[in-house]
Structures are given as structure tokens and as C-alpha cells.
């Protein structure tokens, strides 16, 4: 492969994002220490490329500065903005910011058989590669619910939420990530988050099997005695091996009418992933009544971001390719 030094350096992000996508699917957790080295790598590549362009006096050099400015001062802040309004998780925002720093301009890689990306830059946006990655990411993300609905349709699973969820055995929810998309009375997009369910069970020191097998006893708020560290709801976390958070006896914190001690959970733990006492109670009641429930697989945004990155490096901008196919450019 033939490429400039900065562009070869930037390829390091591809395997890193492959690992991040895999880990995000498996655990829905990405370590914060992942992103600073990528940002440092991007700044190093940017400084290297800028040095090779000195004194930055030509037309192409001025275009380079415009591209860098758009990537750093428009695309990168978009990640922060989407996080602030709740459209992104923290890791998603950091991933987009990292890509904006690493890939402000289009790379060029020469293989024995072709140039990469194969789509000419003139058929793309203004040459801001991070913007190409972002548009690719959005298009890949839009394809996911279509694929999910098609899978449900071919399996004969028809419902109003078939674009967003799929039915799974109820006993499997404790090892899944996602959100319940049904209640006892129908379907909902605001059902119980499964990470919050794990937090609740760890807070009580219960297994999911106990919850399902002893609902009449465990529904009573007086059944909550010692409570434990709820963790962050990750599948692999454990809490009941450590010291109790409260140890005031079986009646500690009990409140009449507080089924499942849901209000007490909210007061002691907080709004775990947006969970309210009402949504917690409804989710538990739904789970103990059903054999199968509709659950959103919850595709992490870093996964389509990785796919969008690979497509951008190999092919180019999918949006402009589609516009060209339709004769719009």
C-alpha cells in the first residue's frame, strides 16, 4: 500500500473501532481511556500533514484549512451536542469527536488494483472525511430497522414494533441489553431498560428466577431487607458479594402501596436509565406474566460508525453515490 505518512497513521483507528464495535455489542460499555490516544494520534497526523504543506499558501492549502476547520469546529461539536440532547451516549459522542480529529480530510491509499476510496472526492461533500463517515453511519443505521423488520416478517412475527424489537424468551432478558417494547396492555417504546432491571435485582440481592418464582412475596415492600450496590447494570457485574448498602432489617424503608419497592429503589439509586417507579413495576409485572417478550436489540451507534468508517475508507460517500445514481448530482 502506498499512502502519505499521516494517512497511514490514521489507519490505526480502523482496528481500534472494530474492537470498540465488538465490545459495545457484547457489553454496551466502552472504557473512557480508549479515546484520548485516538485524539492524540489525530492531532499528530494533522500536525504532520500541516508541516508537509507549509507555507500553506496555495488554493489547495486553503481548502485544507477549511476542511480541518469544518471537521474540528462543526463535526466534532455535533457529537457533544447530540450527547447533550440525549441522542448519543457518552461513548458515541467521544467516538465521533475522535473521528473528526483523526480524519478531517480525505485520505488516499494506492493498492496494486485500485485507489481507495474508489469514489472520487469530487463526487462527495467538500472533502471533509469525518462528515462522510457520519453520513455513512446514518445510512447504515437506517438500514438496521429494515433488516430487523424483514427478519421478523420472515419468521411470521408481526407487530407494531417489528422495526424496533424482536420477541425473545423471557428467561433470556437478564443476559441481554436493550429495552422492553411491551407492557401488559400492549406495546410501548418507553419500556423498562434491561440494564435497569439488573440494577434493581442487584440492589435487592435477588436472581431473576427468584423474582419470577416468588412474585406474591417479593411484590411486598416489606420483603426488601438489606440492599446492595446496584452497579451500572452491566451483564458481568456483581454486587451481592460486597457489603450491604442498607441493613435496617426487612421493614427498612417500606412504604405502604410501594409494590416491588419501586419508589424506594428510585429514591436510593436514582433514575436508572430513565426508569420510573411506574415503568419498573409495569416491566416486572409484564416479565412475570409472559413466556416471551418484545425486546429492542438496541444496536450501539459505534457499530454503524465502524461500518461507516470502513465503507468510507474503501468506497467513499454513500449519500453522494446514491444521489449520483438518482441523477441528482
UniProtKB/TrEMBL annotation:
Keywords: Cell membrane, Cell projection, Cilium, Flagellum, Hydrolase, Membrane, Transmembrane, Transmembrane helix
Transmembrane segments: 34-51, 63-83, 95-116, 128-154, 299-323
Enzyme class: hydrolase
Domain Prepilin type IV endopeptidase peptidase: 12-144
Main location class: membrane
GO function terms (MF aspect): aspartic-type endopeptidase activity
This protein's GO CC annotations: plasma membrane
Gene3D superfamilies reported in the protein's UniProt record: 1.20.120.1220
Domain of life: Archaea
Span list, region Disordered: 217-257
EC number, UniProt record: 3.4.23.52
Preflagellin peptidase C-terminal domain residues: 285-318
Protein location: Cell membrane
InterPro entries membership: Preflagellin_Peptidase, Preflagellin_peptidase_C, Prepilin_IV_endopep_pep
Membrane topology: Multi-pass membrane protein
Protein name: Archaeal preflagellin peptidase FlaK
UniProt source species: Halalkaliarchaeum desulfuricum
Designated gene of the protein: flaK
Amino acid at each position: 500500500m502506498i499512502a502519505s505518512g499521516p494517512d497511514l497513521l490514521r489507519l490505526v483507528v480502523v482496528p481500534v473501532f472494530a474492537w470498540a464495535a465488538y465490545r459495545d455489542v457484547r457489553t454496551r460499555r466502552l472504557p473512557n481511556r480508549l479515546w484520548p490516544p485516538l485524539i492524540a494520534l489525530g492531532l499528530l497526523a494533522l500536525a504532520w500533514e500541516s508541516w508537509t504543506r507549509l507555507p500553506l499558501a496555495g488554493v489547495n492549502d486553503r481548502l485544507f484549512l477549511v476542511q480541518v476547520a469544518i471537521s474540528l469546529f462543526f463535526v466534532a461539536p455535533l457529537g457533544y451536542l447530540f450527547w447533550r440532547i440525549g441522542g448519543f451516549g457518552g461513548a458515541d459522542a467521544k467516538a465521533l469527536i475522535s473521528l473528526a480529529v483523526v480524519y478531517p480530510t480525505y485520505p488516499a491509499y494506492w493498492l496494486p488494483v485500485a485507489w481507495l476510496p474508489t469514489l472520487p472526492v469530487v463526487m462527495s461533500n467538500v472533502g471533509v472525511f469525518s462528515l462522510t463517515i457520519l453520513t455513512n453511519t446514518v445510512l447504515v443505521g437506517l438500514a438496521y430497522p429494515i433488516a430487523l423488520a424483514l427478519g421478523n416478517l420472515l419468521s411470521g412475527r408481526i407487530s407494531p414494533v417489528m422495526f424496533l424489537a424482536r420477541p425473545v424468551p423471557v428467561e433470556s432478558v437478564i443476559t441481554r441489553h436493550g429495552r422492553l417494547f411491551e407492557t401488559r396492555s400492549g406495546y410501548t417504546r418507553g419500556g423498562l431498560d434491561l440494564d435497569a432491571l439488573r440494577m434493581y435485582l442487584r440492589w435487592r440481592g435477588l436472581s431473576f428466577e427468584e423474582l419470577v418464582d416468588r412474585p406474591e412475596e417479593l411484590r411486598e415492600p416489606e420483603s426488601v431487607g438489606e440492599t446492595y450496590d446496584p452497579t451500572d447494570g452491566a451483564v458481568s457485574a456483581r454486587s451481592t458479594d460486597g457489603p450491604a448498602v442498607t441493613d435496617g432489617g426487612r421493614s427498612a424503608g417500606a412504604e405502604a402501596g410501594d409494590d416491588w419497592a419501586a419508589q424506594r429503589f428510585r429514591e436510593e439509586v436514582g433514575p436508572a436509565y430513565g426508569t420510573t417507579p411506574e415503568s419498573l413495576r409495569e416491566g416486572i409485572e409484564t416479565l412475570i406474566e409472559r413466556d416471551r417478550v418484545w425486546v429492542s436489540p438496541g444496536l450501539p451507534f459505534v457499530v454503524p460508525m465502524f461500518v461507516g468508517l470502513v465503507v468510507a475508507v474503501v468506497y467513499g460517500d454513500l449519500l453522494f453515490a446514491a444521489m449520483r445514481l438518482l441523477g441528482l448530482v
